[in-house]
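Workshop exercise sheet. Pairs work together: one partner reads the sequence aloud, the other fills in the structure field after running the prediction. Swap roles for the next sheet.
Pair: D.N. / O.F.
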Amino acid sequence: MGNDTRTGGGESTAELLPSEGELREGILDISPVPIAILDADRKVVLANDRAKQELGLREDELLGLSTTDSALSAVGEDGEPVGEDEGITADILETGEPVRNRVYRIDMPTGDATWLSISGTPMLDEEGEVEHIVLAFENITERKERERRFDAVFNNTFQFTGLMEPDGTLIEANDTALAFGGIEPDDVIGKKVWNTYWFQVDEETPEQVRQDVERAREGEFVRYELEVQGAEDTAVIDFSLKPITDEQGEVALIVPEGRDITDLKQRERELREERSFVESMLGAVPDIFYAYDADGNFVRWNDHFSEVTGYDDAEIEEMGPLEFVPEDEREPVGEAIGTILADGEPIVIESYLRTKDGEQIPYEFKAGQWRGPDGEVLGVVGIGRDVTERRERERRFEAIFNQTYQFTGLMEPDGTLIEANDTALEFVGVEREDVVGKHLAEAAWITEANRERIYDAAERAREGEFVRFEMEINAAGDVDTVPIDFSLKPVTDESGEVVLLIPEGRDIRELKQRERELAEKTEELERTVDRLERTNAELEQFAYVASHDLQEPLRMISSYLDLLELEYEDALDEDAHEYIEYAVDGADRMREMIDDLLAFSRVQTREEEFEPQSVEAVLQEARDNLTVAIDESDATITHDDLPTLAVDDHQLRQLFQNLLDNAISYAGDEPPRVHVAATEHDDRWEFAVEDEGVGIPEAEQDRIFDIFMRGAGTDEGGSGIGLAICKRIVENHGGRIWVESEAGAGTTVRLTLAKQPGGNGGVPR
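Structure field:
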């Protein structure tokens, strides 16, 4: 039968089939894929309608168009232009082999750019040469745009992003993550994510990430803060693992993401530190701090605000600023708040802070606008200070400044008067505005004669000198001028600069009067002293003369009585002899009293007669003078170590001799035991002459040092002048003497002597 195939009319099958060209064109027309056929010169000889539509060209524009045409340029995926001898058609012509899915951006003659994925197949002639090239292409412009956008999001975001298989195998990592680690894709792609460079911070992190991947694989969204390793240092990231599911809900992918929050954490730390600093600062401030918005809602306050007002934080949050001031103060305070919000100028308000228990505390409020970062007015911020003490100081200052009897003021360093107290104003009869603002020298108080003196005083005080003198000032009323004690005191700041001058004046009329009276009395006293000195000298002379003149008659009486007794011894009876003995004894005692009185009158000492003397040696001399009395009484006398002092040795010897003689005389029935003690003080020595004698009755102790005062308890009697002489000697040496005694229990005579001549040795410390 051969190859001649026919159909019912006797025609062959070949005759019934369409021609090759018709078949080719039919295939092209029904193909959903854009197809173009090029000849060996790479010119389009045939294209289906789909190709024309995709390329946006008419048939006459497309047919004959060559891939080497300058109006038709191509750019590869690497962004490099495709040359005339390059590209898919050139490769097919050269190799005769098909090329699959070559991607180009085609810049059309129309100016449009289209991304195409092109596959090409050669059509060979009988000699095996490429006769035609069939190109099938797909317009992937939209896909490329999606890829471009994905790449922009994936690789240009500041976040670390990747893609993982559900088992944790990393299949993609964006440029941000790679650059952070300083690594290439090959270093991490295909590895389990927990084994990658980023998570090798420590031994625990890889295991933690592995467990977190398991959780994400089960469909859980995982998120926490994690420290990861970078190229140069570690960083804290906000790390998350997001599972991606397919239509069946199975996890098909996991998206790991991380955002570097190192700076954020640092800012958080700084913010916490700043907030802590602010809280510490506000807590340390003794004032109350507050801030409220434009609607009057409190948004911030310190603990001191709560402590002072007595309200807790919850109560303050529900209150408005005017609720913390008394009702009668709310209107002016509200107006002040409105001024702050409207004008923006800080203001100072003095009012009262009303506490929860109703107490009203004087407060000074300093407030200003609270502004946001963009300068918008958010409300009011301020502080309040308790001014109770300040007001009390002001009250006291007012009391001192205006109620003192002195004239007081305040001046600038240049002498300008800035304040004068009421006393000064009333004294001269002027108002404050009459003198404030003037130089003190020009004020109403200053007389013409004293103006230059005041100018000079102000200049001296301005240089830091304290100036003081007496002067006459003008006065109101009947008196023209009045003497005052005037002074100018400079007040300096921390650097020593004079910042104020304080003028003060004190009316010294009474003082001047007293000075005159005192001068008159002093003159009279001096005259009296002169008279007394003359009288004392006359008395001393009289005592000497009297003692001399009395001594002679007494000696004569004693002598004649002795002669009478001797001449008429046999003629006189026993009574006569006794009478003569009494008369002689009386004359002797009178002579002794006259001697003691003369000694008492002569006890006076001048400081130039004081010389250093060993008190112990002086005491020994006194003992030597009393040898007979000591031996007869079998007395025992002891003493401490005694000092050397500047004294009148004759008088000091008399002092100890009298005290020892007195102790022996009043020893009682037992042998006398006397001890002299010494105690050192800052500016004096204290001596004590202690005995174990009969003592002194309490009633007599205050008068024991009076002249002619004789002690009881002895038959010896005495003139009663010995202790009076002791008192005068001690007082001449700047000391004092006193007695401590108990009847029947002994006596201690205490006395003080100054360490230096003229010192106050008599004042007990």
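Discussion prompt: Confidence is low (pLDDT under 50) at residues 1-19, 712-717, 761-765. What would you look at next?
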